[in-house]
Write a structure and sequence with these properties.
With about 180 residues, this protein is an alpha+beta fold. It has one domain: Aminopeptidase, CATH 3.40.630.30. Helix content is about 25%, strand content about 25%. The protein contains 5 helices and 8 strands; from the N terminus they run E-E-H-H-E-E-E-H-E-H-E-E-H. The chain has an 8-stranded mixed beta sheet, sandwiched between helices. Helix 3 links the parallel strand 5 and strand 6. The longest helix has 15 residues. The termini are far apart. The mean pLDDT is about 90.
């Protein structure tokens, strides 16, 4: 995996020393609100009901995000391959990094890399329909809404009745109209 640089962030392949930052992120109920309803997680146990990523520092396809100005932890981004030609974008940021454009900046860098360097033809992302901030990020980086699903969640999450929305971009859609 490549180290990626944006105007304000450096995205580096995750490492075991990132584990404490990842766990602290998961222990914030507001960060986890749209993933598991904000339930507290035991960092030493895998949540068998989880259908979301809980990185520990050794996962391929996960980048740790830190500001270029210092080495503080902002969050993580992933571009997880579903197939050889498709990947799913994910991200999770510390609450104090919300609303500053870091999610869009990091996600855009990863999507651009996914199409130009990793060779993906399609990149998807999903979130709960009621997670308006994450939906704005997806739209801002050029992903388009494609469907709503109503999965069964093993625990109650406020807003789950509205479903999970999926967004996508294709390599062809990123290129624009062909001459």
């Amino acid at each position: 995996m490549t180290r990626l640089h944006t105007q304000r962030l450096t995205l580096s392949p995750c490492q075991p020393q990132d584990r404490a930052d990842f766990i602290a992120l998961e222990r914030d109920p507001e960060v986890m609100r749209f993933l598991n309803g904000g339930r507290d997680l035991d960092p030493e146990r895998t949540d068998l009901d989880a259908d979301y990523l809980m990185p520990r520092g050794s996962e391929p396809h996960v980048w740790t995000a830190r500001p270029n100005a210092d080495d503080s932890f902002v969050g993580w981004f992933c571009l997880w391959p579903d197939t050889e030609s498709e990947a799913e974008l994910g991200y999770r940021l510390r609450r104090d990094a919300w609303g500053k454009g870091f999610a869009s900046e990091g996600a855009m860098a990863l999507v651009d890399w996914g199409f130009s360097e990793a060779g993906y033809d399609r990149i998807t992302a999903s979130t709960m329909a009621v997670n308006h901030a994450s939906r704005r990020v997806m739209e801002k980086i050029g992903l388009r809404y494609c469907r709503t699903e109503h999965p069964h969640w093993p625990y109650a999450i406020a807003g789950a009745e509205h479903g999970e929305v999926w967004y996508e971009a294709t390599r062809a859609s990123r290129r624009g109209p062909q001459a």
